[in-house]
Amino acid sequence: MRMGEFGRSGASLQALPVREKSSRCHPLPRPGSAPRRARKPPAPGGFFCARPRRPATFAAVPLRYLTHSFIDRDAWDDCVAAAEQVVPYAQAAWLHALNDGRWDAVVEPDPSNGGYLSLLPVPTQRRLWGREALQPPFTQQLGLLTTASSQHREAGEYLALLAGEFARLHLQLNDGDPRPARLPTGWQAAERLTYHLPLDLAYENLYLGYCADYRRRLRQREKANLTLAESVDLAPLVHLFQREKGAGVGGMKPEYYQRLLRLYDALRPLGQTLLLSAQAADTGELLAGALFIRYRSRLVYLFAAATPAGKKAAAPLLLLDEAIRRHAGTPGLVLDFEGGMIPSIARFFANFGARPVPYYTLTQTTRPWYLTWMR
């Protein structure tokens, strides 16, 4: 029965008092009832307009787990480009090249345009014992990427949607993600370090931040008998790396180098690559090389190798100095040396004036104990 309709069994309309105007907000009194207290007239529009207004609130859109076939790559790259965290590794081209085109994600949908407000990449691999989510090669960081409109900002919310999906997970957050305050049951977090050098100062100022030995060796660069040049072919540097130390890098499979070449081919047309080489001035022999990736406000020292003769001539030092010289004075740009857990390498980076920056790894294993040794 609607308000304003007063017909009830045992009562007649003639017995009801008559008003000039009926009110939808307050029903007329029943016959014989006590008189009502005087009330303030409702605002125009009836009962619902008379209620005090409350600030508008918007419920957060639920997170969604997407398998790879349901990921919109254009929307993905738009979110990565707009993210508060600068993560070159999260680009669709990067994940496609280095994880054989297989990655899922937990996303926060954008109801306004069908895109994503935030995302957590989940690189996937298939094993005999089930699916795993492991960090791809040459991919230091991924983690949670949020935008200004994100409502879900805690990594634990995203990880909860991965429950029961994988036999093993190892994910590395980015240096813009804080250590998760709450993790789902079974997850463990560990700290790792990378080294950053801001490049917004002029080169002369950055040079003064080098250690004394580096400055001395750079002053003697003419005696090194090296020629520094920009290259376009990554294959010689990859072959140099495999020859000099490929066998000494644990977990590096031959196919990983092919993936790196595919990544270079994908990013070079986008203007994100800088490949520098150091050659013997008299013979033209490749003595050292370094690949840098520039994306937004980040310059990543991704891949490098040197021969014993190149190390003796300080070629790695000269190549890094050349990259710093080229990008010095760029507001907001940061050189990420991409490493620092090995003490000798950490010292090499710190001697450029770089500072350690933490990021976190997250692991979970649900496989039987007798399979945990298998990679």
Automatic annotation (TrEMBL):
InterPro entries listed in its UniProt record: Acyl_CoA_acyltransferase, BioF2-like_GNAT_dom
Region (Disordered): 1-46
Pfam family, one: Acetyltransf_6
Alphabetical list of SUPFAM superfamilies matching this protein: Acyl-CoA N-acyltransferases (Nat)
Residue ranges of every copy of the BioF2-like acetyltransferase domain listed in the record: 214-337
Official protein name in the record: BioF2-like acetyltransferase domain-containing protein
Species in which this protein is naturally found: Hymenobacter edaphi
